[in-house]
Specification:
Number of helices of chain A: 11
Strand order of the largest sheet of chain A: 1-4-5-8
Oligomer: heterodimer
Low-confidence stretches of chain A: none
Shape of chain B: globular
Distance between the termini of chain B: 52 Å
Helix content of chain B: 25-40%
Shape of chain A: globular
Largest sheet of chain A: 4 strands, mixed
Mean pLDDT of chain A: 97
Radius of gyration of chain A: 21 Å
Number of helices of chain B: 7
Helix content of chain A: 40-55%
Largest sheet of chain B: 9 strands, mixed
Radius of gyration of chain B: 22 Å
Distance between the termini of chain A: 39 Å
Amino acid sequence: MNYFLTEEQKMIVDTARELAQEKIKPVREKYDEEGHFPWDIVKEMAAADLMGLYIPEQYKGMGRGIFELCLAVEELSKVCGGISLAMAATALGTFPILLFGNEEQKAKYLPDIATGKKLAAFGLTEANAGSDAGNMTTTAVKDGDHYVINGTKQWITNGGEAETYTVIAMTNKAKGPRGATAFIVEKGTPGFTFGKKENKMGIRASATRELVFTNCRVPAKNVLAKEGMGFIVAVNTLNTSRPGVASQALGIAAGALEEAVQYARQRVQFGQPIASIQAVQHMLANMATEVEAARALLYATARSIDAGEKSFAKISAMSKLFASEVAMRVTTDAVQVMGGYGYMKEYPVEKMMRDAKITQIYEGTSQIQRNEIALQLIKEAAKKQ
Amino acid sequence: MHIVVLIKQVVATTNVKLDPQTGTMIRDGVESILNPFDEYAVEEALRIKEKLGGKVTVLTMGPPQAKEIIRKAIGMGVDEGILLSDRALAGSDTWATSYTLAQALRKIGDYGLILTGKQAVDGDTAQVGPEIAACLDLPMIAWVRKIEEVSPEKIRAERLMEDGYDVLESPLPALLSVVKEINEPRLESLKGKMRAKKYEPQTWTVADLPGFDLAQVGLKGSPTRVVKTFTPQRQYHSEMIGGSPKEAASALYKKVVDLNIIH
């Protein structure tokens, strides 16, 4: 389908595709197996100017938007949805600074992220505060011109590998949703250490780790926005980053579809390629239709955000919900089309199926996305009355 | 230091088809690429520039569409590109090509190091690099697999040999041809691609080369004559040697001695 990409957007797609094919494809199985962080590939992404696509030029980025970020993440995820996450999760950790940082904070942190010298990460989730973020127990207590942070963040993507962390902590529990604050915390700050590294089902090339804060003193100038605005920072960050997850899901689905179609053309059973069997054709047709629909919704969403759409929480949630559900169905069907071979590690689709699952879970489960969509629907209806 | 990399546009296939009438390659309808060995030379030049500073220029001789490989090199990060293109050069063999490129290098003048691939994957002659060095009376190290040390004054490099490698040191300027073991070429970056898209290389004709002798180039100036092209027929003769293992080994030994394979 023609999505009327500009010459420059086509170049971004080509650059990401070349990187994925030439640098990621040969090593994706190894990284999935070993679960190490793909620093050599991150360096390639940086050298290709892909790490700062969405960061303004004044901070050494490429000055493009969410759409360009999505195009790159989609291409990389077609080959490996785990390795691509180093970029997507850095965007998640960078959005709080981009959206709420003051000039000093932006000038200090964005250039190194844009040039790929440093990665970022976002710390919201805790052991007992997942979908229910308000239940968090990490605290930040003001002490002169510092805040003292205590608590543990869990399942933080890029944890341990990133240099720049945006962390949400409770500064005044009594104030409820208005009692949280967002901080920039640098790796190496005394009292900030890393806990358990998770052993995961999929996205195994991605580092998922605990952030442990023990009397960690963070300068007050590292507060993003203002004290008490932590949840506003978090909600806006997630609304902005969800298209990134959608593009990861879309890429995984598109990659699996391509594998399944190629396989079906070559695999001969009953004296014919299985691609000529209608039962297989219909599966492929459904997969392709869903992938294209997910792409159309995501591209329209990302373009709306870049065009300055004010309330995009609903479409952002819709694109993430839809693309991740599609990714799970399409990768599962890709394994089915490829039968026994699809189940084996010699072919990439079993990995794609494992990688797809997380997209229905993180940055808000599919159920949370539906809550968000419904909430926005009700709000919109109420406004009309 | 000013590093000049000599590059060539080649067809993107190792299965080159020849026109039986003219004996030249059929290029129509085949995708053209930067000669892979030259890509390693471009990468090595960029790495040396990152270390020593300076500038990297690529130079190619070819038809106007050879601008594409200059753009590819620009995308990888080289500073400038020069296309040497003239109808008078059509049909030039390695001698004529070397003469022409040497004249262009004389015009460039301030080169500190010249790099190129060990050979182009179309003609496979590996002659142009050494011939240019001869034309310019420069030291030449062929088949370089590693540059151990480089400064504006001298270079130390490992030359790949069939049974190992030699370490050679040379004053600069010098000409080096590189093999694929030397590095892994980088991809074109996004900023590089954007620059390449708009980039127009300098285009020189023979008229731009001072003192150029037209009698040395083109089909007429080329000493090489392609008399006939054909695919060689491979013929195999096999012979079974019978008898006990001892007899067979003895008969085999006699045969290889007779054939001068061992002495």
